[in-house]
Amino acid sequence: MKTITGRFFWIFTLLVFAFAVQVRADSTVLLDDSLRQLGLRESALRKGDPAKSERFTGNGVPDIYAEKNVPYLEIGGIKVFLSRSVDVYRDNLTITGTDYQKVLVPLLWRSNALPKGVRRIVIDPGHGGKDVGKICNRTEYTEKSATLDTAFRLKNLLEKRGFEIILTRKEDVFVDLDDRAAMANRVKADLFISVHYNSSRPGDTTSSGIETYCLTPKGQLSTNKAKAKADVTAEPGNRMDYFNVQLAWSVQRQLINNTGAEDRGVRRARFAVLRPLNCPGILIEGGFMSSKEEGAKIANPAYRQKLAEAIAAGITDYNQRFRVGP
Ligand SMILES: [Zn+2]
Fold first, then answer.
1. Measured in angstroms, how far is the CA atom of residue 134 from the centroid of ligand 1?
2. What pLDDT digit, counting tens, does each position of 295-325 carry?
3. Of 81, 238, 239, 265, which has the fewest CB atoms closer than 10 Å, so is most exposed?
4. Looking at the structure, do residues 33 and 99 belong to the same domain, yes or no?
5. Which CATH number do you get for residue 198?
6. Domain end point (choices 48, 76, 108)
7. Around ion ligand 1, which residues have CB less than 5 A away?
């Protein structure tokens, strides 16, 4: 009896210790100090309350704008969601150590960690067949049609730029989520781009904007709070954390700058199509089919062409800025 109690005591102690280590592992860092290390300096604010917000600039890197209690940083004018909102410690803004490593370092530090040059890209048109996806109420245009059309437009543009393109589906057929990522791994893709369109809750016809997702780093919270759960499992796709956020930011930036759509940010999720990937990957939500205005735009081929052009430009930015090789 004594031994069993003793064993429980030790197991309990170990659990408490493990929890404490876990919590401490996500330490807090001062934004000012960490950005200084990356070569940026605090500069005068153009907006916001000086007691609660800070702006940083540097040579050849995007500007940063941070605000207390806000769940994202604006990096080069694009929202990048953090695993925890910006906080304050003795009048200084803070973020978590993991957000420093997983967001700021990849986007701001010109390191030697370069991806291989991109040649083969797998484009994944979301949904298909019995899985219709979202439906635009007014035009009855379906997400599965919109994603397939956008994917073909993107394929044409990227092929003209010399990339080899493989689609996870070329027609209106159902493809299992696992098979989409497996296909990218099987053909040894250098990038995986999943295209989707969004929808809001019934009755909401005004929410709009574009968001780009990449895989949530190990132990971090995903962006959409309703489903948020810290997961300590490292997925195969987490080996690409460094490049995933670079790809997501490059594409989101071009999408927002070229369409004028609302920037809903670079977000994190553990999507089934992103978890098993052996290459950098993102999932784009190219706008709200439920929105009166944006839904009508998505149903217009000229707008989908614009979206495809922006995605292609983002991929080119990623490839040129971060590549080695040809
Ligand atoms: Zn979808």
1. 7
2. 999 999 999 999 999 999 999 999 887 654 3
3. 239
4. yes
5. 3.40.630.40
6. 108
7. 126, 133, 196
Whole-number pLDDT of residue 26: 72
Domain match, 86 and 37 both: yes
Instruction: Using the mean position of ligand 1's atoms as its centre, give its distance from the Cα of residue 210 in Å.
Output: 13
Supply 243's token pair: 């490049």
Could you tell me the distance, in angstroms and rounded to a whole number, from the CA of residue 283 to the centre of ligand 1?
A: 9
d(CA 295, ligand 1 centre) in Å: 14
pTM more than 0.85: yes
**C-alpha distances in angstroms, 102 versus 25, 76, 81, 140, 209?**
14, 17, 11, 40, 24
Cα of 270 vs centre of ligand 1, distance in Å, is: 14
Q: Are residues 199 and 286 in the same domain?
A: yes
Q: In what order do the strands lie in the sheet with 191-198?
A: 41-43, 53-58, 61-67, 72-75, 78-81, 263-269, 210-215, 281-288, 191-198, 120-125, 164-167
Task: Show the domain range for 73.
Answer: 28-108
Q: At what angle do helices 241-259 and 301-322 cross, to 10 degrees?
A: 140
Please tell me the distance between residue 112's alpha carbon and the centre of ligand 1 in angstroms.
Answer: 35
User: Count of domains in the chain?
Assistant: 2
Q: Domain check: are 213 and 177 in the same one?
A: yes
CA of 206 to the centre of ligand 1 (A): 18
Q: How far is the CA of 34 from the centre of ligand 1 (A)?
A: 37
Task: Please give the distance, rounded to the nearest whole angstrom, from the Cα atom of residue 187 to the centre of ligand 1.
Answer: 23
